[in-house]
Structure formats: structure tokens, C-alpha cells
Automatic annotation (TrEMBL):
NCBIfam families membership: PRK06123.1 (NF004777)
Gene3D superfamilies: NAD(P)-binding Rossmann-like Domain (3.40.50.720)
Keyword Oxidoreductase: yes
Domain Ketoreductase: 3-182
Record GO terms (molecular function): oxidoreductase activity
Pfam families given in the database record: adh_short_C2
Entry keywords, A to Z: Oxidoreductase
Domain of life of the native organism: Bacteria
Family recorded in the similarity comment: Belongs to the short-chain dehydrogenases/reductases (SDR) family.
Record carries keyword RNA-binding: no
SMART domains membership: PKS_KR (SM00822)
Protein name in the entry: Putative NAD(P)-binding oxidoreductase with NAD(P)-binding Rossmann-fold domain
Amino acid sequence: MKPVLVVTGGSRGIGAATARLAAQSGYSVCLSYNSRPQAAESVVDGIVAAGGDALAVQADVAVEGDVVRLFALASTLGPLRGLVNNAGILERQARVEAMDVQRLTRVFAVNVIGTFVCAREAVHRMSTRHGGAGGAIVNVSSAASRLGSPGEYVDYAASKGAVDSFTLGLAKEVAAEGIRVNAVRPGVIRTDIHASGGEPGRVERVKAAVPMLRGGEPEEVAQAIVWLLSDAASYCTGSLLDVSGGR
């Protein structure tokens, strides 16, 4: 039976690229989406057409009941062996003095609390302490966690800083229970998340600040994620891997 991987936010960008590559690497993939069913089903159809196994589940990771249901449905594919905490949001570019509590609550509910709750459900199923066979968790953080995103997304950057700290703490907590926990920190990647912030062409504007002088592709981040999930990274836990072109 194939190992099962949950990829949150798997309908587009880094999540979709990760789902496709993980399926090619032998996982049965359960991907979640919040509001793009057609995009999610397109990813699933592509995986199935290539001979893989995949399932799309609507779930808002900021809603605990949705997360519980997501993992229950993922378990119908087989034993859970991996989680990619990819779901994340940002709001429109703004300075801190213009950010209201509603905005901050939305960002932290998805990016931080959602990551915690998904990891909780994965640990319940994978930890040898609970009868599981072990596994791996990869959290998708951001280079913003160390750059701060001034004048644009300080709230997003702060939420990803929390993801970094969470990665370090959880990795130590479950290391002896067969679970490795790592994070990737993408830089400016060509996905449509930039449109959510009000600047679809942001990658072109900022790429000159990247030592490699270009934006990254979702598939380049997916390669790092799937490596961290694999046995090739068997002695890596608590690592924060930058995939940022040197920035």
C-alpha cells in the first residue's frame, strides 16, 4: 500500500506542484483546497491520468472541524506518512498602522493556527507513541520570516516567523517518535499569491534584489519539499531550508 501524504492548499502554486511530484514519487496524495474546486480536481485528474492516486477535499485549515474531516478522509487512502503544511494567505499590501484586528486574525488563523492543528492531526496518526509507523512533516514558511516584509506584509512575515519556531519545537518534541519535522522558506516564487496582495507582477519588480536575478518556480520549491519528506533526508529534522535564490 502506498504511503499517504496530505498537502494543504494543493490546488495551485507550490501545493499543486508538490502534490504532482509526490505522486510521481510514490505517494497517494490527499490535497485540500478552500475555494477552488475545479483547480483542485484538475490536479487530481492529472495525477490519476499519470497512474497515481489522489483525492481532493474541501477544507479551510482555519476551521478545526474541516481539518479533522480532512485527515479522516485522507485515512481512507491508507496509512498517513506525511504532511505538507502549505495552505497560507496574505492580505493586500499595507503598513502596520493600517492593519486592523480582523486582518491579523485571518492571517494568523490560517498561517499559524491552521498549521498547528494540521500537525496535531498528523502526529496523532504517525507518532509511534500513538501506534503509528512514523513519517515526516514539512511546513511551508517563507523567506519573509527573516526579511520582515516592511511596507507590504509584516503580518504575513510574522506569521511565518511563528511557523519557523513551531517547526523547531515540534521537531524536538516528536523526534524520538519516528516523525521528522522540517520547513522550507521560499523566496519570491511565481505563483498567484502575489495577486492576493494586490500586485500580480511583484516577482518582476523585486527579482533584481535576488542574487540569482530571477523569481523561483513552484516546482523548484516542490523538489525541496519532497526531498525533505523522503528517506534521503533521514537525518534532517528541525531544519529550515531556504529556497530563495540566495536572498
